[in-house]
């Protein structure tokens, strides 16, 4: 007896599905899932297209729990039944849709954009967490709110277009979370950081007064937070030393200290990393000239993003474009010879210690 052709079998299967009770449909669906997952070493395009129509009918007649199982199976395939995959990705139940949106490489950019613009926040978060988020998808998602924007910024696999960056800069929330996340993101274009730092601050840093809000008697001194006490340093040092010992006193940690305004931790970290006395760290932190602080950061082997975070959070006044350009030029010059500048920091620290502490405008690099 000759076996039926695959096409004839599919016709019979479709006819059977139309009159099949839900329990039987679920059984058939399970069998097809097993067929798909067992055929990873075969060309799947024809197989996927052949079963697509049957799967679509089956999905209309089974419970959501069966669809969750189907979605998880299809999400792991490089080639999957296209219409069925789209239906699952756009399903109202996030438990069905999210595994497909998060993992499936067979979904097109157009499919993802459609879901990003029409479905729920859980659907959007699944897309934002993908290993790779294409620029068109990113642009669609950033229109859906600050929390999705933050998820995208924190995902290393997100790709941003110029339009996406422009939207993020224009819509940075009043608490500054989007701006901070962008500045801290590795590989952020320098132009984007420049625009963020030059944009009106609004309520970006509410805890620190602006230059115009500082009383006249305080105008001569940078609006730095109150210097830590000896007790603050004593409490901070054991943890900082321990972090350094296990290799975790790094850019990420120091950056967090700067952004959160953890002054005692920040100062102690710079002291431990650079080898400079804490008094010298205090001196360069309140010096109006940024050169000494940039040298201290470079001596600590911090990167430019962390150095910029420290410079930007040490006072209530925002760095001007010229000040930031000069600081970056100094930093890039120091990069040419890390060890040479690290040794030189000791000389600068000595000179700083001998200078008049009230003369905050003194040049920390005067011995060059």
Mean pLDDT comes to 76
Question: Considering DSSP H and I runs of 4 or more, what fraction of the residues is helical?
Answer: 55-70%
Report the portion of residues in β strands: under 5%
Cα gyration radius (Å): 29 Å
Overall 3D shape? elongated
Q: What class do helices, strands and sheet pairing give?
A: mainly alpha
Q: Low-confidence stretches at least 5 residues in length (pLDDT < 50)?
A: 201-224, 342-368
**Count of DSSP strands:** 0
Summarize the biggest pleated sheet.
none
Distance N terminus to C terminus?
96 Å
Write the H/E string, N to C: HHHHHHHHHHHHHHHHHHHHH
Helical segment count: 21
Q: Can you tell me about this structure?
A:
The chain has helices spanning about 5-20, 20-35, 45-60, 65-75, 80-90, 95-105, 110-120, 120-130, 135-140, 145-155, 160-170, 175-185, 190-200, 230-245, 250-260, 265-275, 280-285, 290-300, 305-310, 320-335, 340-355. The longest helix is centred in the last third of the chain and has 17 residues, at about 340-355. The chain is mostly helical. The protein has 21 helices and no strands. Helix 18 (about 290-300) packs parallel to helix 20 (about 320-335). Helix content is about 65%, strand content about 0%.
Task: Output the keywords.
368 residues, mainly alpha, 0% strand, elongated, disordered C terminus
